[in-house]
Amino acid sequence: MPSTLPNEPDALAPDQALDRAVELETMMFDRRRSTPGAARSFVAGILAQWGWTERLDDIQLCISELATNALLHGAPAGGRILVRVELRATVLRIEVHDGGSGTPFKRESRDTADGGRGLHLVSTVSDHWGVTVRQGPGKCVWAAFHHDAAPTR
């Protein structure tokens, strides 16, 4: 259910994109309540190392929502969650991988509901988002943020 647009290679799945990664970092997290916060801190730390502050609040909100969804709906008990941050020439992409079999989708939630708004938030603050099938079990849920040029160190 990607929200990609034709002729926008930076928003496509990693194997479809034309740009090579300028920077790339990954980290595995155990399936715990603290995982969304730890994933948010990991991404913020990586972006700080890269000298990247553009849209930091949006990126942190998205990684938190994606990690929370993986924790609650994706990663099986005892499973792990992989967070990947990739900076390309014109896009910053964050990914959350889990071993779950379900496919996330935006759903309508009632005004009084406690949850169900995560992917609406991701869709609103990112430029594109989507779900990619992985080799082996699970999926990758990603969000992309376009920019003009990679920061220089």
UniProtKB/TrEMBL annotation:
Keyword Transmembrane helix: no
Domain Histidine kinase/HSP90-like ATPase, chain residue ranges per copy: 38-143
InterPro entries per the UniProt record, alphabetical: Anti-sigma-factor_SerPK (IPR050267), HATPase_C_sf (IPR036890), HATPase_dom (IPR003594)
Keywords: ATP-binding, Kinase, Nucleotide-binding, Serine/threonine-protein kinase, Transferase
GO molecular function: ATP binding
Pfam families referenced in this protein's UniProt entry, alphabetically: HATPase_c_2
PANTHER family, sorted: ANTI-SIGMA-F FACTOR RSBW, ANTI-SIGMA-F FACTOR RSBW-RELATED
Protein name: ATP-binding protein
